[in-house]
Amino acid sequence: MHANRPPAPAATRAAPSLRRRLHLLVLVSTMPFMLLFLGTAVMQHRLGRAQAGAAALDLARALTLGVERELATAVATLEVLALSPSLQSSDLTAFRAELMRYAGAQAPGTGVMLLDASGTPLIDSRIDPNLPGLLPHQDQAVVADFTQAAARTGKPAVSGLFPAAGALGLQVAVDVPVMRPGQAPYVLSLAMQPTRLDTLLHTLPLPDRVIVALFDRAGAVLATTAIPPDGTGRLTGRVAPARILDRMKAQTAGVLAHANLNGEAVQTAFNRSATLGWTVAISTPQSLLMAPLWRNLALMLLAGAATLGVSLLLARLLLLRVLPPMRALAAQAQEAAAQDANPGGVGAGSLGLLEADLVADALRAAARDRAAARDELQTLFDAAPIGVFRGSLDGRVHAANDAYLDLADATQADVAAGR
Asked: Does this model's pTM top 0.85?
């Protein structure tokens, strides 16, 4: 009664296997955690950069106050010296001894001078008064303008970096007017080398590769912890690139990204002194700021790979428990289909998987139902009072009941023989 069954549809044969589905499930379930970790790492990196910029900006402000205090101390001592009775009485011979004692207490390379209101030097602590010749001072035109401004305003003034004469190199001057009623006939000037400011910067406990620089109003480097690109000489006196100066002059304080003299990408926090016009800048390499992100991403990749590996291993162990029962169930189903007449075609007993056992029970129940229906149909076929037969298009009779055999005057042997 059962002809050969047609092959399974192509869609069924192309359906993904349980193994592939489990692998896909592992990847899909792992991906959200990876994305969450990635998002968290990026957010932490941005927060870290902002915090690093804020910390550098606070340090720049603190350094600015330190530089202001350093120069304010120099101004205060000069103001005390300006009150000398010998200077107030214009006894320059007596005052010279006081000026030399004051200069002797200063750092090496520091000079103390007395100039008139036009900027002409009168006394220089670095010159022996018994030797002839001009005072080896800086550019007289620059000094004259600077000294005249201090004498005219009656207020202390701090210069930018200027080249001193001879072997004195670059220096910074602090000028204090010597006030008398209605005028300032003299100006006391303290000329110091930038190394005094270098010492202030190098006392900071800075991380490796973080650079601090102090710029004057013109953008020239007064002091820095940086090493020149060629590894020799000093950066003092070099002027910062115009694109950097323009951005730093646009605001009093801030954080900007740019390339330093070595061409390295850096993040610079800067703060400009309202009284001096000098700017303190702290540069941190971008690679140093990016290091935590790369470290977190590397940890994420390792953790993700480990999680994925463990998940795939668990999926494989699950497959080892699931696939044998499923294959046994498929084998029993094929056996039942091949032995459709046998209600017990699907073997009894557990397959080791609850779902597979439930399917096997359903197959056994369906086999019993089909056998019962087949037996009932056969009974009706055999007991029918009218002739019933089953044949093919070529005229052959494959089955017939007794009523049909009586009408055809044939026997079951004739049907079996195909007659």
From this structure: no
